[in-house]
Specification:
Layout (H helix, E strand, L loop, with lengths): L8 E4 L2 E8 L4 E5 L3 E6 L3 E6 L5 E7 L16 H14 L8 E6 L13 H15 L3 E7 L3 E8 L6 E6 L14
Parallel strand pairs: 2-4, 7-8
Antiparallel strand pairs: 1-2, 3-6, 4-9, 5-6, 5-7, 9-10
Length: about 180
């Protein structure tokens, strides 16, 4: 379980910032200029940031809901990851309820096997409901589909970037002929 990992500093805006790559189950806090990134399939990533975007926390949720007693502190679980994000924000005097959220992931990585309900949809629905119940505004989302997502954000005013890479398992689609 990783709570905060700092990689080698990079130079941004005249000061040293960190490049932090999240793996499944990680939760990290970044400050202005830090680069946060992750790769998602059916997992969901949540970014919470103060309205001025001076601080941000990001998580990579693998399992949703409440964990078993054996995994009570495992941030791969949604409930634990979200609480850890809230705790990190409170530690730097940011009330989580005033944050904006960005939510990405929840893809169906095996569309030939799961055509309706799938793990990614369950993950995405749980996260969106949890944020709603906490009164946190979601300002951007990219959920579902059949591709992987590469998510990157430099803590600051810019929006996170999300690149979708289609899965080899995605069903073939035919282009529609042009309208006449």
């Amino acid at each position: 379980m990783l709570i905060e990992r700092r990689a080698a500093p990079i130079s941004t805006f005249g000061y040293n910032a960190a490049a932090i790559e999240l793996m499944p189950g990680h939760v990290v806090l970044g400050r202005a200029g830090d680069q946060l990134k992750t790769l998602l399939g059916s997992c969901v990533s949540v970014i919470l940031t103060d309205p001025r975007r001076t601080v941000g926390v990001m998580c990579h949720i693998v399992h949703v809901g409440r964990p078993t007693a054996a995994n009570a502190h495992n941030t791969a679980y949604g409930e634990v990851a979200m609480q850890e994000m809230f705790d990190l924000l409170i530690d730097v005097a940011i009330p989580p309820g005033r944050c904006h959220a960005f939510v990405y992931g929840g893809g169906n990585m095996f569309p030939q096997m799961f055509t309706t309900t799938h793990v990614g949809a369950n993950n995405a629905n749980w996260v969106m409901n949890y944020l709603h119940d906490c009164g946190i505004t979601v300002v951007d989302e990219s959920l579902g589909g059949t591709g992987y997502r590469k998510v990157a954000w430099t803590v600051g005013r810019e929006m996170p970037t999300v690149e979708t890479v289609l899965s080899d398992m995605a069903p073939a689609t035919r282009a529609r002929p042009p309208a006449r």
